[in-house]
Amino acid sequence: MKVVSLHDVVPGSGPRRLAIGTFDGVHRGHRAVIDGSDTVLTFDPHPLSVIHPEATPKLISPFPVKRDLIAGLGVDELVVIPFDRGFSEQTAEEFVQDVLIDRLGAERVSVGENFRFGKGARGTAEFLSEHDDFETSVTPLVAAAGETISSSHIRGLVAAGEVREAADFLGGPFLFEGEVVSGDRRGRTLGMPTANLVPDDAYVTPGHGVYAAWAHGYPAAVNVGVRPTFQTGRGRQVEAHLIGFDEDIYGETLRIAFLERLRGEQRFDSVDELVVQMNRDVAQAAEICEREAVNLRAGRPRG
Question: DSSP string of the chain?
Answer without folding.
Answer: -EEEEGGGSPTT---EEEEES--TT--HHHHHHHTT-SEEEEEES-HHHHH-GGGPPPBS--HHHHHHHHHTTT-SEEEEEE--HHHHT--HHHIIIIIIIIIT-EEEEEEETT--BSGGG-B-HHHHHT-SSSEEEEEPPPEETTEE--HHHHHHHHHTT-HHHHHHHHTS-EEEEEEEE----HHHHTT---EEEPPPTTB--PPSEEEEEEETTEEEEEEEE--TTS------EEEEEETT-----TTSEEEEEEEEEEE-----SSHHHHHHHHHHHHHHHHHHHHHHHHHHHHTPPP-
